[in-house]
Amino acid sequence: MLAMPSTHTSLHIHVVFSTKGRVPLIDAAWRSDLHAYIGGCLKRLDAFPQEIGGVADHVHLLVGIKPVHTIAELVKETKRISTEWVRDSKLANRFAWQEGYGAFSVSKSAVLSVREYIQQQEKHHQHRTFQEEYREFLEKHGIDFDERYLW
Predict the structure, then answer these.
(1) What is the per-residue pLDDT across 4-14, written as a single tens digit (0 to 9) for each?
(2) What is the pTM assigned to this prediction?
(3) Contact 129/137 with Cβ under 8 angstroms?
């Protein structure tokens, strides 16, 4: 019997988080720079950013991860580092991310559709709020939630 010499994984996570209080602080003038910076944060954490997008009050990240990553630590560090960058760049002195986040597993076969979804954030939010979008994610993935914490 042959032993398997290495570990092989395909782990993709769709992460969503908002600015503190869902305040629309992410200005369109520097939004793409923030998204690029977040991608750099993820790379420094040894993850694989596949798509990053969002609007003034939240971001979506599609990230390939390794089995050694913990989602909580990856999100915590990404938020911490990107907050420092925004504040140090004097783009928004009071900038902060909310404490919580959503993380949803994505099969390899769905990666392209999630990437396209993230690319279309501006268009999506012409017709629905972040809260409506987020509730839809929770329901789609069968996640129990307390309505009080969505608003």
Answers:
(1) 678 889 999 99
(2) 0.90
(3) no
